Amino acid sequence: MRGILADEPDMVERLLDHIDRKTTDLSDGVWREPVAHYLSQARFAAEISQVFRKTATPFCPSAALPDTGCYVARDAALTPVVAVRGGDGKVRAFRNACRHRGVQLVDGAGCRKALTCRYHAWTYGLDGQLRGIPDEHGFPGVDKAAYGLVPVQCEENNGMVFITQDGADVRDGAAAWLPDIFGPDWRLFTTAEQEFAANWKIVAEGFLEGYHIRSTHHDTFFPLQYDNINVVEAFGRNSRISFPYRRIEKLRKVPPAERKTSGMLTHVYHLFPNVMVATFPTNVIMTVLEPLAVDRTGIVTYTLSNLTGDEEGRAAIAQGRDFVALGAAEDRDMACAAQRGLAARANDVLTFGLFEGAIRHFHRNLQDLIGDPVGDLMEA
Ligand code: FES
Ligand SMILES: [Fe+2]
């Protein structure tokens, strides 16, 4: 895999070349991932503490926080977090708990002038400062300045809000490497949340190769795109897998330097560890895979578009989103079946071949960060 992302003419050239030769990008070796890594509580705990909480992970798109006071609250790495846009335009993130008796402050998404706890109405500003305690004389010695919401490192970058829960510099993660995906004219169209009975890594793997297009997506994606023809690139711990549509053939008539990829392929950006950003003709879908338990994953799907919001534009966005959802449901079926198959105890390792290089990159990075040999984990 190359270290920098191909530009549009280069990408088209590489894909047309693969189509001509009936080839695809190959990784430099087969990867064998221990099945224990999908079942072990100890490994799951290590992923949460050593990977998720120490990595700058995309939390939501900037477009989910369009105005002052808009917030998104959800669990990230088993931690309730709220991100909110302040009066100064800056997005801040906080641990989502009142400083009085710890009640979770907000749920879901919305817009507010201040964050007021439902229990006893302590009120926090959008900057997290504790502004008001009803009947404050009942709390002698409580210094409001020391009772603000507990901040989480937060940075807006390339149209996404990144958070880092523990320690590391937020810029060490995906943010430093990202190409422009969401410009200022991108708007949030819809948000959807689901839960599935599969380890989060199995769900992630379903996004990271094109070797299953014909067999899994026979009546959805396969009529429009090729099976097992992809360009696979790594950037930092992240990767980009490009899936050409059959209509890319039209670009053969276009001079190479003028070839544009829009409408001709899907890029799937894997933002390590748990976010997928996939480009489609009428929208871009940002999918957050949230580990809930070793065998359970929450999936938050943000559909964004830069098409106009008139009736025709909205219908096109909805149609594109609903079509992709059909294919996504097929992927989730496979993920749940793969999870169930683990219980058969047929495999000690799962084998990822040369077409599955982005998955190899993913597991190699997890291994680098966690480092524990599986033997130790099995005994833990
Ligand atoms: S727990 Fe929030 S005000 Fe009492
Ligand atoms: Fe798929």
Architecture overview:
By secondary structure, the protein is of the alpha+beta class. The protein is built from 8 helices and 19 strands. It has helices at 8-21, 36-39, 41-51, 200-205, 213-216, 311-342, 357-370, 374-379; strands spanning 31-34, 57-61, 70-76, 79-85, 91-95, 109-111, 115-116, 123-124, 130-132, 151-157, 160-164, 187-196, 231-235, 238-244, 265-271, 275-279, 284-293, 296-305, 349-352. The strands form 4 sheets. Strands 2-11-10-5-4-3-6 form a 7-stranded antiparallel sheet, with no helix packed on it. Strands 12-18-17-16-15-14-13 form a 7-stranded antiparallel sheet, with helices on both faces. The longest helix is centred in the last third of the chain and has 32 residues, at 311-342. The protein is globular, with a radius of gyration of 22 Å. The two termini are 35 Å apart. Residues 206, 212, 216-217, 327, 331 line the site of fe (ii) ion.
